[in-house]
Write a structure and sequence with these properties.
About 15% of the residues lie in helices and about 50% in strands. The chain is mainly beta. A twelve-stranded antiparallel beta barrel has the order 1-2-3-4-5-6-7-8-9-10-11-12.
Length: about 150
C-alpha cells in the first residue's frame, strides 16, 4: 500500500511513500489537470485532455505507458500493459475510488482524513508507475471537483 501526503499547501504536490519510505513525488500541474512524478530517478509525465476526462501516462523515453478514460464519471477505466482496470466511486456520497474485478472491489484510492492531506492507495496487481498514475488522476479529479464546487 502507498501513502501520499500533501507536501505543499499552495500546490498539488504529494510525497508518495511505501512502507514509510519516500519513493516518489506527485507534482500536479498548476493550471490544468495532470502533472508528473519521478520514480527511481525516471520522470513520468501525466497529460489530460481539456475536460480532464482522459489522461495519458508517458514514460521517461516518451512511450505511452497507461491511459485513463471517462475520469470523473461514476465508472472509469485505466488501460496499461494490455490490461483494463475498472474503477468506480464507492458511493454517491463518497469521493473514494474502488478498483473492481468481476468479483467486486479489490482495491481503493481514498482520503485518510477529512482535510484531504493524506491519500491511501491500495491497488494490488497494478505496476508501481500505474499506481502512482492512478493516484495523480484521482487527485486531479478531486481538485477539479473542488474547483467546480466553489
Amino acid at each position: 500500500m502507498l501513502l501520499a501526503k500533501r507536501a505543499s499547501v499552495w500546490r498539488s504536490r504529494y510525497t508518495v511513500s511505501a512502507d514509510g519510505h519516500p519513493i516518489a513525488t506527485w507534482d500536479g500541474a498548476f493550471w490544468t489537470s495532470g502533472g508528473e512524478f519521478v520514480l527511481d530517478g525516471q520522470r513520468f509525465q501525466v497529460d489530460a485532455n481539456t475536460w480532464g476526462t482522459r489522461f495519458t501516462l508517458t514514460g521517461p523515453d516518451g512511450t505511452p505507458v497507461a491511459a485513463a478514460d471517462r475520469v470523473g464519471r461514476k465508472q472509469w477505466t485505466v488501460q496499461a500493459g494490455g490490461q483494463t482496470y475498472r474503477f468506480q466511486r464507492r458511493s454517491f456520497w463518497s469521493t473514494d475510488q474502488e478498483l473492481h474485478t468481476e468479483h467486486g472491489p479489490v482495491g481503493s484510492v481514498r482520503r485518510t482524513s477529512l482535510w484531504g492531506d493524506e491519500v491511501a492507495v491500495d491497488l494490488p496487481g497494478l505496476p508501481l508507475p500505474v499506481q502512482i498514475f492512478v493516484l495523480g488522476v484521482v487527485i486531479s479529479m478531486w481538485n477539479a471537483q473542488a474547483a467546480a464546487a466553489t
